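In response to a reviewer's request, we include the raw inputs and outputs for one of the modeled complexes. The two entities were modeled together in a single run.
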Amino acid sequence: GAGVSQSPSNKVTEKGKDVELRCDPISGHTALYWYRQSLGQGLEFLIYFQGNSAPDKSGLPSDRFSAERTGGSVSTLTIQRTQQEDSAVYLCASSLSSGGARRDTQYFGPGTRLTVL
Amino acid sequence: ILNVEQSPQSLHVQEGDSTNFTCSFPSSNFYALHWYRWETAKSPEALFVMTLNGDEKKKGRISATLNTKEGYSYLYIKGSQPEDSATYLCAFCPGGKLIFGQGTELSVKP
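The model returned the following C-alpha cells for the whole complex.
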C-alpha cells in the first residue's frame, strides 16, 4: 500500500516568511509524528498526535512552530517568521498506535528539505 | 534528559567485512529500542523494534542484540556489501516519540 507522503519535497523561502509542510500518513495509522534533522545534528522529535488526544508538543523549539492534524489524517506543520536556523529536513512518520504501544514501528516519509535564505 | 549515544560516528569497511555498532541508552524505565537504516535521499527504513532483555533479532545479514539492564544494543552486519552503505540510527522510545542517537555512518567499498 501507499507509504507516508510529504509535500513539498523541497522548499526555499526567505527569512521572515511563513511556510507550511504537509504530511499524509499511512491509511489507518492513528499516530503521526514530526521530526527534523538540522545540519550536523541527529533526528529531533518535534510533535506527535495520537487519535483525538491532545498532541505532545514538547519538542517544538519555539512558539513560531505549530502543527495540526485534520480529521485524524493529514497533518500540516507551520513555521511562522522563518529563521535561518529553521533550515533542516523535516520528516513525518506514522504508526498504528502510540502511548501504550511503544513497540509500534514508525514509518517515515521522504521528508521536506527546508532552506531559509 | 534522555540521552542516546551511538558509536562509532562513522565506519569505512571493505566489501565482505563484518562490522558492528553500539547504541547506549538509559537503562531505567526501558520500553523499546528501535533500529533504522537511512540511505541518502530515501526515507529512514525500520530494521528492528526490540523490547526484551536478551532479545536477538535478525534480518538477512543484519542482526541486533539488546541488554536493557546495562543499557546497550549492538547491531551487526555480516559480510558487508556496498548496498549496506547508509546511516544506522537507534532510537529509545520512552513513550510515543523516538529519541534518536546521532547515527553511525557506514561506507562499504567494493
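As requested, we also summarize the result in words. Chain A touches chain B through 28 residues (CB under 8 Å). The first strand of chain A starts at residue 5 and ends at 7.
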